[in-house]
Amino acid sequence: MADYENFIFKIDTDGIALVTWDMPDRSMNVFTEAVMEEIEALVDRVAGDDEIKGVVFTSGKDSFSGGADLAMLQKIMSQFHATKAKDADKAARELFGNAGRMSWLWRKVETCGKPWVSAINGTCMGGAFELSLACHGRVAVNDDSIRLALPEVKVGIFPGAGGTQRVPRLANTQEALQMLTSGQNLSPKKAKAMGLVHEIVPKKKLIEAAKKLIRDGLEPVQPWDEKGFKLPGGPVYSPAGANLWPAAIAILRRETYGNYPAAAAILKCVYEGLLVPFDTALTIEQRYFTQILQTREAEVMVRSLFISLQDLNKGARRPQDVPASKLRKVGVLGAGFMGAGIAFVTAKAGIPVVLIDRDQEAADKGKAHSAKLMDGLIKKGRATEAEKEKLLSLITATPDYAALEGADLVIEAVFEDSAVKREVMERAEAVLRSSAVFASNTSTIPITDLARNSQRPKNFIGIHFFSPVDRMMLVEVILGKKTGDKALAVALDYVRAIRKTPIVVNDTRGFYVNRCVLRYMDEAYSMLIEGVPAPMIENAARMAGMPVGPLALSDEIAVDLVQKIMKQTIRDLGEKAVDPRRMGLIDTLVDKHGRFGRKNGKGFYEYPAKPAKKHLWPNLKTLYPQQDPEKIDIEELKSRFLYVIALEAARVMEEGIVIDPREGDLGAILGFGFAPYTGGPLSFIDGIGAATFIERAGQLKKKYGNQFKPPKLLAEMAQKGERFYGRFAPAGEIQKAA
C-alpha cells in the first residue's frame, strides 16, 4: 500500500514495516523538504502503532541515495544571506535551526522505541549514510561497486547530521578521522571491517537479512545510549588519545595548510563530542555546522563543486533544440598515449571504438593500454576479468580507415602538427557520412585553423582531453568560428556519456585551461630567476592551495614541450610574447643539461629508481644568485600564484573565450587543481571584490611585471560594484549569485 509520495509502506505478517524509498521522476533518491516531512511522519506512525515491531528502510532504485538535494541546501544558504542583510542575529538563529533539522530527525529515528534496519542496496552517500548510521542495524549488498561515504568535506561543508558523532562511536577513532576529513569512499566490506555495517549479503537476500535482525530481537537502542558504553578507539584523555590527537592535527595542517575550515571543524566536532553525552555532542556538531555554512569557503565550494558541477554535467551549455544523440560508434585517430586513453574511456562507457594508427602494431599497442588500465582496476577490486574482456571487445584496433564507416563521431589525437592532422582528417572524411562530427584533441592549434581543411566546418569541433585521460575529469569543448549547434550537442552528449565534465570554450591560442597553466608555471620561472629557492616556490604553491607545485607540473608536462610552446609562441606572436629570461631558463635546462622532465628522469626534479622519492635538482640553486629565505614574504609568493591565474581567467572572460563563470571556475579546478577552497579563480576575485583585487594586483604589477596588469573588465566591474556571478549570467538555467 502506497501512503506517501516518495515512499512505499508495507507491513508483513510479522509486523515488520518495509519502507521503500522510491522518488517519482527521479533517477536517484535525494533528501528534499517533502522527503524529510514524510520521514518524520513515518517515524511518528511507527512509534505510535503497537502492531509494528520494527522497520526495514531500503531503496527502490539501483542506488540507495546520493544524499541531500542541492536545492534544499541552496535554499537554506540563500535564506540566511537574505535575512542577514536585515537582522544578523535572526539569520544566525534560523540557520542554526535549519542546520540541525536532519540531525535531530535522525536522532528521533534512533530513539523512537522501535528497531530500524537500513537495507543498503546501492551507493549510499552523505545524509543517507548518516540516516543509516542512526538505524539500529545496517545490512549492505556485498558488491565492491557500491560506495558508502560521507563526502561533504569535498564541497566545503562536513557531515552535520550526526556523522561526526556516530562514526567515531562505531569505528576506531583514527579510521573515523581519516574517513571524515578525506570524504573517502568505502566498499561494503571496508565499512563492515570498520564496524559501520553489521552484515553484507548477496543482493537477493538483502531484505530478508534485514528483517531477520529484527525477528532475532534487535534492540531499539544505540550502543552510545546504553550505560557503560566505551569508545572503540578509547577515551580522548588516554594514552591512545595522547598519541592520536596531536598527530591528527599536524597531519590535517600538512594536508590542508588551514585552507579548509570544514576539515578543521570535523576534528573539533569529534574531539569535543567524544567528551560529552551524545545529545550534547549533536548540539556541538550543530553549532560548528552553522559556523561552517557561513564561511566563504562553504559558499563558493558548494556553488562550484556541487551546484555548477551538476548543472554542467546535465548539459547546461547544450543547445536545447538539437535532439539527443546516441553514439553507436566512435573513431579515434592516433593510438598514442592520449588516443589510447580516449579509446579506453569511450569503451568503458559501452560505446564501440575504432582505434586507428599507422600500422597494426601501433594500433594494437594503443589497445593494450586499455588492457593495462583494466588490469589495474581488477587488482584494486574495482573490475572483473569479464568486464575487461567486454571492454576490449568494444575496441577495434586497425590501420584501416575504412573501419570508420558509420561512425557518429571521430576524434583526432595525433601529433601536434597541422600537416599530420590535415592528412588523417582527409583520410577519415573520405569514408565518413556528411552528418558525422569530426573533433580534434589539439591542445595548441586553433580549431578554426584546422577546420579550414575540413569538408564539414560546421561539424568540426575541438574536444580537448587532459592527461591522463582516464583520471582527469575535465574536457574542453572548443568552438571554431563555423562550428554548428549540432556538433556542439554531439560533443556534449559524448562527454556526458563518458562521465566527464565539459566546459565550452571559444577558439583561441591555448584555449582556457592551458593559458592559466602557463601563467602559473611562468610565475614560478620568474621566482626562480629572482633567486627564490625552489623548495619555497613549490611549498608556497601548495600552501596557496595548488595540488602540484609549478616546477613539478612542468616536469609532468615535459620541460622540452614547454620549450617548444615558447618557441612557437615567439614565431607566431613575436619576440616580446615570451620573457627572454624565462626562455633562457628553459633553454638552459633542456639544451645545456638535457633535462626534459619526468619522461627522461630529470627536469626541475630528479627521479631516482624506486623506492627512493623524487627530489628537486640540487643544481637549481646554482643557476641564479639565491635570496635569503628569511627575507622572502611567503604570503606574497602565494598571492602571486593565485593572482596571476585569476587575472588570466578574467582576461579570458573579457575576450569572450569563456562566457559562463561556472565554466571558468570549474575548468580551473578540474583542469589543473586551482585552489578548490576559493571556488575557482572568478569566485576568488568575487570574494575579494573587484576594487580590492585591482588594488592588490596593481601593487604586484609594480614589483613583478605586466602579468599582474588588471584587464579593463575588472576596472569596469569595480566601478559598478559588479561580480562575475551577476554580470555574466550563467548560460542555460540562470543560477543566482550566492
Structure description:
Helices cover 50% and strands 11% of the residues. The protein has 30 helices and 21 strands. It has three domains: 288 residues, 2-enoyl-CoA Hydratase, Chain A, domain 1 (Alpha-Beta Complex); 180 residues, NAD(P)-binding Rossmann-like Domain (Rossmann fold, 3-Layer(aba) Sandwich), CATH 3.40.50.720; 214 residues, N-(1-d-carboxylethyl)-l-norvaline Dehydrogenase, domain 2 (Orthogonal Bundle). It is globular. α5 packs antiparallel against α6 and α14 runs antiparallel to α15. The strands form five sheets. Strands 14-13-12-15-16-17-18-19 form an eight-stranded mixed beta sheet, sandwiched between helices. A six-stranded mixed beta sheet has the order 1-2-4-6-8-11, sandwiched between helices. Strands 7-9-10 form a three-stranded mixed beta sheet. The protein is an alpha/beta fold and 738 residues long.
How are the SSEs ordered, and which strands pair?
Layout: E1 7-11, E2 16-21, E3 30-31, H1 33-48, E4 54-59, E5 67-68, H2 70-84, H3 88-110, E6 116-120, E7 124-125, H4 127-134, E8 137-141, E9 148-149, H5 163-170, H6 173-182, E10 185-186, H7 188-194, E11 199-201, H8 206-215, H9 239-256, H10 261-273, H11 278-293, H12 296-313, E12 330-333, H13 337-348, E13 353-356, H14 360-379, H15 385-393, E14 395-398, E15 409-412, H16 418-429, E16 437-440, H17 447-451, E17 460-465, E18 474-479, H18 485-497, E19 501-506, H19 513-530, H20 534-543, H21 550-557, H22 559-573, H23 580-592, E20 605-606, E21 615-616, H24 620-623, H25 634-654, H26 661-672, H27 681-688, H28 690-704, H29 712-720, H30 724-727
Parallel strand pairs: 2-4, 3-5, 4-6, 6-8, 7-9, 8-11, 12-13, 12-15, 13-14, 15-16, 16-17, 18-19
Antiparallel strand pairs: 1-2, 9-10, 17-18, 20-21
